Each structure stands twice: as C-alpha cells, then as structure tokens.
Amino acid sequence: MTQWTFNKTIFRFVTTALLLCASVQAGAADNRHPDWAKLEVLVDASISKNLEDVTKSAFSPFDAKQKLPLSQSVVWLRLRPENTIEKGQVLFLKILPALISEVTVYAPTTKSLNNWTVQSYRTEQLSKPIPIGSTSLGQDIYVRITSPLDLRILPVIDTKENVDLLQRISEAYIVCTLTILSLASVLALARLVIGFNLLSLVIFTFLVCITITCLVGTDLFNLVVRSDVDDKLDIFPVALSGAVFSIICIWLLLANDLFNGGNWIKAAFIFLLIYGLIFVGSFFNGNKALFILENAKSYTSPIMVGLLLLQTLQSKYLPVKTSEKLILILLIVFAIISLPNAGDFYQPLIEMVNRDNLKPTNLLILLRPVLSLTFLTLTVWHFENLRSERISSLKYELNITKSSLESESSSLALQKRFTAMLAHEIKNPLMASQMALGSIRDRLVDEDPSIPRVKSIQHSLQEIDSIIERCAEIDKYEQGYMPLVMEKFPLGDLVCIMKASHPSERIYTIVRGTDENLVLRSDLYYIKSILNNLLTNALKYSVAESLVELKVEYKSSTSNNELLFSVSNEIREDAKLDSTRVFDRYYRSESAKQQSGAGLGLWLAQSMAQALGSHIKLKTDRQFVRFEFSIHV
Questions:
Q1: What is the pTM of this model?
Q2: Residue-wise over 47-84: b if at least 16 C-beta within 10 A, else e?
Q3: Which CATH architecture does the domain made up of 483-632 adopt?
Q4: Fold entry, domain 408-476
Q5: How does pLDDT run across 331-384, given as a tens digit for each residue?
C-alpha cells in the first residue's frame, strides 16, 4: 500500500470515528420527553387569508417529506396540544433548514382584547429558538411561514432546554461534516495543483459546492459570512445545482473512461447539457431551478443506470478487472442516490435528543455525508488504479510495437539494400546483353532472317529494364527518397521533357487555351513521372500502330483556374477495364496479361497525383480510354 493510499484510509477512519463520537456525546439526554403538540399544515395559495379565516379552514397532517410551495403561497402550521406542561413553562419553535425568510407566531392569550398575541421574526432572528407560548390553555397555536424557496421543512416544538440541545447537536454535526468536506476540498485542491486534469477539477468543484450547500442551510452561515442574511437564499440553489452538475460530470467522466467512450455513455452526455442549463438558470431563478433539478433527478437516475447496463452488455469485453467491476458498482450506486431532504436529514438529529427514539437506520443517515465521500474516494481511487493498469498495459504494448517497428525497419533497410544490389547486379548483365545484341545486330544485313528475332530479344531486354527501373522508382517513393518539392517552371519545359522521354511518332501533343510560357508551381518530377507512366501504359496496351494523344488544356472558372492533363488511346475490342480496380497495386486485366508488366505504373501515378492534391480519373468512350488529372494554376 502506498503512502498516499494509507493516508486516505486513515483519514476516512478518523473522520468517521469523530462523527460517531460527536453523535453519541450529543445524544446524552437523560429521560424521554413527550410530544407536546400535533402538527398540521395549511397552504394558502391566495396569500390573503387572515387568522380568522385560517382558524376556520381545514388542516391536513404535517409530513416532513412533503415539499411545501412557499415561493407562491403562505404556509400555516397549527400546533394542536396533546400534553399539558407545567404552568408558566413556554414552548419554543425551531425550523430546519434555516432557509425561512419570515415566521409569524399567533399564540392564545388572555391579556389581549382579541385573545391572540402576534410576533413576527425575520431571517436574522430565526437563528435562535423562538417562543410560541404555552399549551396549558388547551388552545391551538398558529404559525405563518414564508420563504422565496419551495422547501421541505422540519419544525421542532419543545422546551427551551431541548431545543437548545438540538441546536447544539445539529451545529456539532454540521461542523463535523463541514470539517470533513473542507479537508477533502483541500486534498482535492492539492491533487489538482500536483496533477491537473479534468476529473480533479470537477471533484474540487463538487466538494466546494456541497460544502457551501451544507453551510448555507444552517445558522452557521450568519456567523461565518458577514453579509446580508438574505443572500444565502440566493446562494443555496446555485450551490446545490452546482453540486449536482459536478457529480453528473464525475459520473460521465468515469463511465466514459471505463468503457473508452462507448455509444450508450455518449448518449448520457445529454444530461451534462441539461444540468448545465439548470446550473446557469439557478443564477436567475433559484426556486425554479431547484424544482426542475428535483424532477430531472428522478428521471435521470433510472436512465443513467439503464444506459450503464446497456453499455456493459454492448461492450466487446465485459469488465473483468477488479477495479473495473468496483467502478461499475460504484457508478450504479451514485446514479441511484437521491437528494437529501429535511425529513431524512434532520429527523435523526431530533431523535438524538432522546436516545430511546434513535433507530439503527438513522445512524446510516447521519453518516451519509461520510459514506458518500467514502464512495467518491473509493471510486476515484479504483479509477486511478484502473488508469494506472491501462497505462502500464499501453506501455507494454508500445514497447512491443516499438520492437516490432525496429525489427521491421531493419528488415526494410535490408530489403532496400537487397533491392539496390539486385537491381545493380541485374542491370550489369542486362547492359552487357544489350551491348552484345547491338554488336550482333550491326553484323547482320537488313535482309537477314535473324533480324526479327534480334528485335524481339532487344524489346524483351528493354521491358526487363523498364520493370527494374519502375520497381526502383517505387522503392524510392515509398522509402521517402522522393519528397514533394514545389517549384516554379514554364509549361514549355514540361512539354520538352515529355517529348524527349517518349520520342515515339505515335504520340502527338496538343496544348489548348494557353501557351508554353505559362508558369506552373508544382513538382516537375512528380508530373513528369505521372505522365510517363500514363504514356507508357497507353503505348503498351493500345491498338498496334494507333496514335496516343497527350493533351494539356487550360480551364478557367469563377472559383479557380486549373491545367488539365489527359492521355487518350484506342484499345482493342476484347480489352475490358475494371474502373474500380485499375489503380490497385499489382492489378492487371486479363487482356493485359499478354504483355509484360508488374501492375505498378498506374498505382504509382495515382499515388503521386494524390500527393499533388489531385486525382487521376478514368473515362471510357466506345473503344477509347482517357486518363486525366488536373493541377491548380
């Protein structure tokens, strides 16, 4: 185990132990206390009801997991007494989370003409428990609540001692949670500085956003940040949507790397756009952003899990490594984790006031931030292990590939030397044979019957020499010894070179639309080689004694000017050309196999034309074929 891994493990155990100790110590209440009042709720969508109207309205049982539309209405709570307390003892109210803008308490009294005392409390006054009166009179107490955000709230009604105890418990719990998140943020920042990558940036952003979310939802925000207390009602939606957007980014990055950019995972990137728009929208309308966020999350989780499973089934190789399997499981867990609400977040803290009420399942809820952070740490850790394994595997494959390339390079070098040696060794006796054949030809008279045979042998020797020259040229081209060199030259030089290379009387040259003084900027050697191959091909496979046309034509248009080269010849009736394969390496038609050749000329010509940014086209017209290509002027 590396030192970094050991430190992370120790950090997780220590922080978990601290949270457990704080929770157990905070829950050291001596005796069970009764529930003083039954809570009921009424939503006033008209925002016009007064106390008299409210007392005559029907209330419904209060549910902490029900989201209340506080932004568009007024919420009334009715505290119906169920137990009697000592005379003169006052009950206190505390509402969690601390995102309420105003609370008005209507308590029964005999000292007022209308038998009610009314007291309003703003955001800055709600950090402390507020008195709501006594239930000893046997009458209901009404509480009017407003907030710019739709929330799930959890009101706590108890004696001042117990409410103060609850506040200390919640503050201790939040401080422990914030400490863990802050330490994790510092570690993420260090990781970001040491080795910057997108995943580290998103993890740091997530930890910062979730830390701000926890801080803003408590009374500690007013103590830590000296600003308008109403600012936290604007900050909360931005921080929460930013945290969810970051966790979606983390999920997508890990899933994308796990499956190397699978198609189903790519489809999930639409959620990145959706949650990014929600995050941006939270700056303008926080309440609406929270509404969309919660609804989107309920649909996103099953879809993401489904896409993950589909990608797993579609993958050519299912996850086989331990790191891959663990990351897959953790990604599924992260996708199905729901957003916390006031009911499951603060209820365990309230039950800690009386240890007899604490359920074992609530301990998991209390440890939820630590467990979530542990899940995130484990996921990133296994992801790093997987990435390290893949990098090691790639390095091993690269070393093998490097060795293979070096071996192939050595083989190519040997092949090059062998080809050069073979061409040299063949050319020497070939030249000697040509000289000897020329000497024999000079001794014969024109009427000698051996003359045709001598000419046939001479033609065969020339064909062998041409094939050797073609193979040597291709070897140089593929080995990179014929680089493309762009230079200026007049068209007349090219025409003269082509006439000198092919003095055959069968070839006639036509220049149209321009003259030989036209200056071109291209590679003269490449154009000459292309035309040489096309002319040689035309002379070899055309009808005997037929003419071959080399045409150079200037074409102008509004978009560009170009010079069109074409080579045309007549072919035999039985000749059949496959236009899809004529430029393939080593391809030769059935009719062409009667002639000597290697099937490399047209392939080399097409390769050079493509290097010039052009393309040779084959056009047929009855018994004529034409090869043409163009270059820009």
A1: 0.59
A2: eebeeeebeeeebeebebeeebebbebbbbbbbebeee
A3: 2-Layer Sandwich (3.30)
A4: Helix Hairpins (1.10.287)
A5: 887 777 766 666 666 776 676 665 555 565 555 556 666 666 676 776 777 677
